[in-house]
Design goal:
This protein has 345 residues and is of the alpha+beta class.
């Protein structure tokens, strides 16, 4: 009997674009219209294949650039707020500015994770360091949860012990600056996160959005006070806390799925469609995310196949997978010599 043969292809860049037109049904759907807009705002999806980047080094570099630019953007926002604090002398605004500075620094763990993810695999970490990105995502989820708790506690405290706000014009200006800066950074991070398939970078974008919502609560609270309703500030704060909790749920779900090797069923379906014409009946496709790279394993029955046939089949299936899916890292073809144990589609 010919010995089992395993063929492992390393990831490599492509210089040619791929176009795909799939008419299959999805295992999941997303709302459309206004409901879809709200869903995308509060629970941004962690995979957008249309804008994805295939090359591993290019996607890592794009992720690092996104972290750097967004860190500068949040730093500039906090500096603008600091200038307002200096002009107005508001201690409350100073506390909010310090909070924004500290939130900007939460991008640093993700930056480190992207750098680690570029390191080669070792004998201890045989799959590389891609999981560092998902661990950074857990840290970001914890920061979002902390933001929700702080916002809720502060709102409840002001609800039962109202405090007069001074320098309302300056407070409004600082809130507008904070909201605009954080939301621009959120849009940028989420877009790049979708392009490179990084759930952690999307989570960091959601974190920026939660900070923007907090600043928006300040703006709406000031408007409420001007309209003669001083309790508007804590009430809106509680509503913002609820919005952050919704954001937290969606983000924690995506990060948790990554850590549990969860993959969008649509990606699995597309991979199966790609290799179906090339593989015998009884083949099986499995995938897992390691950071922002999607690693693929294809198990196929190998009875009566020669080593040369298996190599050619593995090469053809790898090309098909890379043509059908974005963000592909390694593609491993595993011949199964006992077809009775082969899992069917």
């Amino acid at each position: 009997m010919t010995p089992p043969h395993t063929h492992d292809h390393e990831a490599h860049p492509h210089d040619h674009p791929h176009e795909h037109d799939h008419d299959h049904d999805h295992d999941h759907s997303h709302p459309t219209g206004f409901k879809g807009f709200v869903y995308a705002l509060f629970v941004p999806h962690s995979h957008d294949a249309a804008d994805s980047i295939d090359d591993a080094m290019q996607s890592s570099a794009k992720g690092i650039r996104a972290v750097k630019l967004s860190l500068l953007g949040l730093g500039a926002t906090a500096l603008f707020q600091l200038a307002v604090v200096w002009i107005s002398g508001s201690v409350a605004l100073l506390a909010d500015t310090v909070h924004n500075f500290s939130d900007a620094l939460t991008a640093i763990p993700l930056w480190i994770a992207f750098l680690l993810g570029r390191r080669a695999a070792t004998k201890r970490f045989t799959f590389g360091y891609g999981r560092a990105e998902d661990m950074a995502g857990l840290f970001i989820v914890a920061m979002i949860a902390l933001s929700a708790v702080i916002a809720a506690v502060e709102s409840i405290r002001r609800l039962f012990a109202p405090q007069p706000l001074e320098n309302l014009g300056w407070v409004l200006a600082a809130g507008l600056i904070g909201f605009a800066g954080n939301e621009l950074v959120a849009i940028y991070r989420i877009r790049v996160g979708r392009q490179i398939g990084s759930a952690a970078l999307i989570a960091d974008g959601v974190h920026a959005r939660t900070d923007g919502f907090t600043s928006l609560a300040v703006v709406l609270g000031v408007i409420g006070i001007w309209l003669g309703f001083p309790l508007a500030d804590p009430i809106i704060g509680l509503l913002i806390s609820a919005a952050i909790a919704i954001l937290l749920w969606g983000t924690a779900r995506d990060i948790g799925r990554r850590l549990m090797d969860g993959v969008d069923p649509d990606l699995v379906h597309r991979a199966e469609e790609a290799v179906d014409p090339l593989s015998p009946a009884g083949s099986r496709v499995r995938m897992r995310w390691m950071g922002h790279q999607l690693h693929v394993e294809i198990s196929t029955p190998a009875d009566h196949a020669t080593t040369s046939d298996l190599k050619e089949r593995a090469r053809s299936m790898e090309q098909a997978i890379r043509g059908a899916l974005p963000n592909v890292g390694s593609v491993v073809s595993i011949p199964l010599w006992n077809t009775s144990e082969t899992a069917t589609h």
